[in-house]
Amino acid sequence: MPAIRAFPAHAPLLATTRGVADRAAAAPRAGADPLLGRDMPECVHFGSIAVVDRHGTVLAQVGDANGINFTRSTLKPLQALPFVEDGGLARYGFGSQELALMCASHNGETVHTALARAILDRVGARVADLQCGAHAPRYYEAAGVRTPEGLAVTPLHHNCSGKHSGFLAYCRLHDHRLAGYLDPDAALQVRIRNTVQRFAPGETLVAGTDGCSAPNFAVPLRRLAQIYCRLAVDDEPALRALHYAMTRHPDLVSGTARTDLALMQAGGGDWVCKIGAEGMQAVGVRSQGLGIAVRIAGGDSRALHVATVEVLHQIGLLDDPLHGPLARHFRPAAHNARGTETGRMRPLFTLPRLVS
Q1: Can you give the C-alpha Rg of the chain in angstroms?
Q2: Measured between alpha carbons, how far is 125 from 123 in angstroms, rounded to an integer?
Q3: Whole-number Å distance between alpha carbons of 125 and 169
Q4: How far, in Å, CA of 267 to CA of 292, rounded?
Q5: Which pTM was predicted?
Q6: Which secondary-structure segment (H or E) carries 207?
Q7: How far apart are CA 62 and CA 74, in angstroms?
């Protein structure tokens, strides 16, 4: 097992460039990088990429596929898995919509908050039992809409309220007390840790606390990619249920103008996708038996979206990236306040084509 390094050996993945004022008249710079053309790099985004098969064999990588990274919200399907495995869906009459929300980093739109409340009502829990905290709905930022003044925010609006509602449902299923359900030693969290270890055999799990106060774990990037490959391809019933729920209801997993929604729309039900905070994205591709994990070291979400779309394009999953729901993330241009193009975000890596 590779030794744990505090700082993964990330590599340059993307450059945000700034071009010359008169593009038509400009001569190429001496020694210009063919990937950048005449533009000068202004910002460089470092990170790592791992593409694996279901056995964890690394098929393509950039940077440090063995580097340890916190999974953040990409862990949510595994956090929901014990509830599914133990028959929780049937016990409470939940379907794929409720399960999708348990895996979500949602926008806090009405459809999300109403479904989270319905889960709580069904299992006999209260909004006050949610220990995720509260923040303004992510919808406003994602849609570029100003947050209304005086908006009454509750824990239901938190992007993780679906996951926490699922946690409370698990506790009700097993007659566990609701208070303290986030404690690392609580029966629920021990079960989740054991589940993560089951999907990451032989790895030393590094524990931390997520933004919603739930325990979270760091694993090698290649292992996260393998987890999503298994989520996509395994025919074990609980994993199939998770895959179906997430790909059938990407709007519940994310929401309006969110990238997970766009990714799963582009994949047409074949790609199961989940973003994580601070620059983490995981994708499982059922038809090809592939798992993909992308990490942006600086946590920049714009760079994460561009790098993810670039990976999909380069390995052969996205042949027409300039059209469709992911077009705005493919090597996007930067514009100033006048609308003048000032540069682009360009890839600094190349991957082999894996899909014929």
Answers
A1: 21
A2: 6
A3: 8
A4: 14
A5: 0.94
A6: strand 206-209
A7: 20
Q: Which residue has the tokens 């090698």?
A: 220
* Torsional sign, CA 13, 197, 213, 129: positive
Q: What SS3 class is residue 290?
A: strand
- In this structure, what token pair is assigned to residue 141? 């930022």
Comparing C-alpha atoms, which of 157, 163, 169, 167 is closest to residue 111? Answer: 157
Q: Can you spell out the DSSP letters for 45-67?
A: EEEEEEEE-TT--EEEEES-TT-
Residue type (1 letter), 262: A
pLDDT band of 332, cuts 50, 70, 90: very high
Phi and psi based region of residue 242 (left: phi greater than 0; alpha: psi -120 to 50; beta: remaining): alpha
Q: How far apart are CA 143 and CA 150, in angstroms?
A: 19
Give the single-character DSSP code of 346.
E
Query: How many Å apart are CA 229 and CA 18, to the nearest integer?
Result: 37
Min mean pLDDT across 33-42, 217-226, 277-286 is at 33-42
What's the pLDDT score for residue 309? Answer: 98
According to DSSP, residue 328 is labeled G
Q: How much helix, strand and coil, in percent to the nearest 5, is found in the chain?
A: 35, 20, 45
Give residue-wise pLDDT tens across range 206-258. Answer: 999 999 999 999 999 999 999 999 999 999 999 999 999 999 999 999 999 99
Nearest to 349 by CA among 323, 320, 314, 304: 314
Break the chain into its structural domains and give their ranges: 68-314
Structure tokens at 11: 């590599």
- Phi then psi for residue 272, to 5 deg, are -105, 125
